[in-house]
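explain this:

___
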Amino acid sequence: MLEGNRVSRISVRGFAVASATAVTAVGSVVGVASGSTAQTNDAAEATAADTTLLADIPAGQQAQVQTASLTQQADAQAIAADASAKKDAEEAARKAAADTAIAKKKAAEEKAAQAAKEAKERLEAKAAASRGGTDVRDSSSFPVQGSYSVGQIQAMARQMVPGGQFQCFSNIVNHESSWNYQAVNASSGAYGLFQALPAGKYASAGADWRTNPATQIKWGLNYMNERYGSPCQAWTFWQANHWY
């Protein structure tokens, strides 16, 4: 209402009280018509008076409220991010553990298979030795492989060398190459199980002498038999001279 040049300003709180009072008055009429107890105007005014609107809060405090709200949101987002990162890390760890277990299992299976194969070859060699080596195998009867272990080479030798001569034969190979069919003497060029010099001597037993230990065994056995009469006689000479 205008009074001269002054305008009466209704505050936000006063407007809220007036509005609440009006609504309550209407509710009172409806309540009476329906038989319910009406809320008094005084109570409505008290309720409206207790209501704090954002507009009623000073500017500085508004900034604090908004900052607190943003801080709470940031904290909630940080907690969610930490939980997500922890979940991802746990999943990655589980996957890595599973991959490691699979790799170990595969390696163990391959090792077991190799050990079983070598054990079978040793049994076959011992069986041949127990029969006195009468059915010794020729080098060509062994399947060609990409590589050979010491156990495999020894098993081959047991099946090619007569039983009574094998230990002497083995003693010489142990001293010459430690059963390494690819051993090379850096100074002389001597090669293989028997350190043949020149290395090409093995070719008389087979063209695959560089990669096939059975061919080298054949050559070494022939050499001992032809030069000394037997592997044991060759071993006797070796012990006296440290060469053969």
Notes: Confidence is low (pLDDT under 50) at residues 1-39, 131-135. The CA atoms of residues 136 and 160 lie 5 Å apart. DSSP finds seven helices and two strands in the chain.
